[in-house]
Design a protein that fits this description.
Layout (H helix, E strand, L loop, with lengths): L1 H81 L3 H37 L6 H16 L5
Amino acid sequence: MQAKEEALRLKDETEQELSKRQRRMAQREERLQKRQEALDKRLDSIERRERNLNKRQSTLDRRSNELATIEEKRVAELERVSGMTQDEARTEILKTVEESARVDMARVLREVEAETAKRVKSLPWLFNVSPLIRWQKRRFLLCRYPAMI
């Protein structure tokens, strides 16, 4: 009798353990299924974004090519109208910019001379005016335009 009771108890324990394992396995399978579905959704989303990016990239490439063609036509038209090549036009622009820079430099130099003269007049006993102005001119030119001196 005691053996039967022991056998029944072992059978119940085994069934309970088996039941627990089956529930845990079912829970794991459910979690894995949910994880798989989430990964599938993410993959679909990534693939959709990749397709959209590819479409955008092809549109951008097409537009870039169109803009390059338009730019080439514009340069050709400008060269035709001006009678200059692109290099000649660039050289002309550089000359104009250089001349403008020289004029600006002369204006700034005059402003510095005037301000220095004003400052020196307020302290005549400290400085000899003309060497200071020469020194500031030279310092300004050396700092801004080292090739000019």
